[in-house]
Amino acid sequence: MERCFIFAAGDFFGLRERPAPGDLVIAADAGYRLCRRLGIDPALVLGDFDSMPEPSGVPVQRVPVEKDDTDTMLAVKLGLERGCREFYLYGGTGGKRLDHTLANFQALLYLRRSGARGWLYGDDFCWTAVENETLTLRRQVDWGLVSVFPMAGEARGVDETGLQYPLENAALRPEVAVGVSNHFAADEAAVTVRDGALLVGWELPREGA
Asked: Computed from CA positions of residues 54, 20, 14, 79, in that sequence, does the dihedral angle turn out positive or negative?
């Protein structure tokens, strides 16, 4: 088992990648409603069930309301324990809970530091974390947006190629949003960070377009 799909209770903007037989599917609390709407049967519904009643007829793992991790983060850790190395997160952005969106961005870095990769899907956008490595992106939208933010203090040795505003051996500081709203200028772009961690987001085609 390599792939884990986690469905959370935030806003949903379309299923970009669908679970296949053999993938691990976890519903984080009220993310179970999203699974039902999509006709997807989760292997487990995990949560403290503060936002929906505990469901019946499906495997459930109840966790305390008072805990250090969010339900989504607990699902991430469970997927890692079961050997998954590629994670697709839906319902992890939007809504009234900006704090949960930020926590899910942190989960992307947790995954990267655990030897895995997470893809967090928002409103025609995908996010992932990179650390001391290069991420290659394929242009899917003409003049599509790309934004880059340092995640763990200053990120040094940052290169951005194939974008409207290239960077070479730059330092990005967390208090300055110099990496926001770049654009693809070529069919492929690359973001490199030699010392540090970055949150990278890029625009996807409009769902159904």
From this structure: positive
End-to-end Cα spacing for the chain:
32
CB 180 within 8 A of CB 147: yes
The answer to whether 54 touches 63, Cβ cutoff 8 Å, is no
- Say how far apart CA 28 and CA 66 lie, in whole Å: 16
How far is residue 34's CA from residue 72's CA, in Å, rounded to a whole number? 14
> Cβ(59)–Cβ(12) under 8 Å?
no
Q: In the numeric block, which tokens belong to residue 30?
A: 């009220």
Neighbours of 146 (CB within 10 A): 25
Distance CA 191, CA 18 (A): 27
Q: What DSSP designation does 54 have?
A: P
Q: Is 42 helix (H, G, I), strand (E, B) or coil?
A: coil
Tens digit of each residue's pLDDT (9 = 90 or more) over 41-100:
999 999 888 888 888 888 889 988 888 899 999 999 999 999 999 999 999 998 778 999
Burial pattern 35-63, b for ≥16 Cβ within 10 A else e, equals beeeebebbbbbbbbeeeeebeeeebeee
> How far is 171 from 84, CA to CA, in rounded Å?
33
Backbone CA torsion sign across 182, 186, 191, 192: negative
Three-state DSSP class for residue 36: helix
**191, 141, 139, 187: which is closest to 165 by C-alpha?**
191
Question: The tokens of 138 are what?
Answer: 């394929």
